[in-house]
Amino acid sequence: MSAPAALKLFQTRPVKSAGLALAGALLFTLLLAAQAERPAAPVQLTLNENPFGPSPLVAPALREGIRDLYRYTSVEEAAALTARLAAKEGVAPELIVLGDLLEPLGLQLSLRGGPGGEFIYSVPGYPALVDAAARAGGVVVGVPLNDRLENDLPALAARVTPRTRAVFLVNPHNPSGTVSDPAKLAAFIRGVSQRALVIVDEAYLEFSDDFAGRTAVALTRAGENVLVYRTFAKAYGLAGLPLGYAVAPRAVADFLRQQGLGGAREQNRLALAAAAASLRDAGYLARVHDAVAAERTQWHAVLDGLKLRHTDSQANFVYFDAGRPHAEVAAALQASGVLVGRAFPPYATWVCITIGLPPDNVRAQAALRQALGK
Fold first, then answer.
1. What's the confidence (pLDDT) of residue 39?
2. Of the candidates 174, 221, 230, the residue with the CA atom closest to the CA atom of residue 199
3. Is the dihedral of CA 130, 134, 140, 146 positive or negative?
4. What pLDDT shows up at residue 42?
5. Which pLDDT belongs to residue 374?
6. Whether 175 contacts 353, CB under 8 Å
7. Are the beta carbons of 339 and 44 closer than 8 angstroms?
8. DSSP string spanning 329-371?
9. Cα angle for residues 227, 229, 232 (degrees, 5° grid)
10. Which pTM was predicted?
11. Please, are residues 235 and 288 in contact by the beta-carbon 8 Å criterion?
């Protein structure tokens, strides 16, 4: 029994004697002491989740939506969210494809042209799409990051061949958090997309300093062969009800729908309700952005104070060179109750830490100082 539950127990049962009162007080004191001695729950800063949680409008929407949990998602419900997203992105609804699409997208693009198609991406990186492509006979072509740990756009372009099926970018990149220069990225997309589909995963772009100026959706609107993927799992705080969507060229969107992707029956009705509620909260993303940016600035100041090299992250995580093996640092942090992201070879001494709530960040920063003896 927890101490609060014990307190409630003693508040709701009448005390019949001084002896019982004294025994109750003693027991409650012992319970408090036991709870104080219990180690604090680990701080989980591993998967780039939004610790500030979803919009306050989400919980009422879920309570309403759960009434119809026995029903499949209807075409009308999916169409309503699609229309809302199309208006948000400034495109026709036919260019929106709902769903957690990265893995099925890689699979379908690989199957479409048969085995041997090449899928180019930055390494280390987020491999969901290329791994799925490889399972269907695709050939994964990894291109190292540049010296600033950004997507190396010239090197990526140089690897495009007639066999290239798609070029996959994450911007801001995962795990470095770096963003590509908008003008250089636009030029890259215009050039490469004439030879292969360019896919830009913008899962973390809402955390950046200039979402509108950095998104590649303007190029999709302009007719370039580029698909932009977004998710509600990160900035919108809905990792537990994941939902994403693609803004795709019409031919690509039609192809995906022909393969069964994006259909109403494929969608979780509670995820749709949560996403729709999030979009109705006009100020939510700005609040999250500002809170994360403030904590990210503090993290970078701490890393600078420790004289640790770090990237210029524009995401909701920081990435830095601890100067010693990742496993050693991660184990020391875990011993202090802080869990951090996995290693990303070949950066054997670099550590990725998700930005948490302010008290969690303070705890993690103290643990890092202790782990490094600084």
1. 58
2. 230
3. positive
4. 93
5. 85
6. no
7. yes
8. HHHHHHHTTEEEPPPBTTBTTEEEEE---HHHHHHHHHHHHHH
9. 160
10. 0.89
11. yes
| Domain 58-280 fold | Aspartate Aminotransferase; domain 2 (3.40.640)
Secondary-structure breakdown of the chain: helix, strand, coil percentages, each rounded to the nearest 5: 50, 15, 35
At 306 the three-state DSSP class reads: coil
Distance CA 255, CA 274 (A): 27
- Predicted local distance difference test score (pLDDT) of residue 40: 73
**Residue whose entry in the numeric block shows the structure tokens 């698909």:** 227
Task: Please choose, from the candidates 12, 6, 50, 8, the residue with its C-alpha nearest in 3D space to the C-alpha of residue 30.
Answer: 6
- H or E, element range at 294: helix 284-305
Q: Which CATH number fits domain 43-52+284-372: 1.10.150.120, 1.10.357.10, 3.30.9.10, 3.90.1150.10?
A: 3.90.1150.10
Task: DSSP letter for 202, please.
Answer: -
Say if residue 124 is preceded by a cis peptide, omega within 30 of 0: yes
Task: Using DSSP, state whether 152 is helix, strand or coil.
Answer: coil
What's the CA gap between 123 and 217, in Å, rounded? 24
pLDDT in tens, 7-18: 333 233 333 344
Instruction: Please tell me the distance from the alpha carbon of residue 352 to that of residue 342, in angstroms, as a whole number.
Output: 7
> Which residues sit opposite 170 in a β-bridge?
201
Taking alpha carbons only, the member of 104, 118, 43 closest to residue 363 is: 43
Regions of the chain short of the pLDDT cut 70:
1-39
DSSP conformational letter for 248: -
74 and 81 Cβ atoms separated by less than 8 Å: no
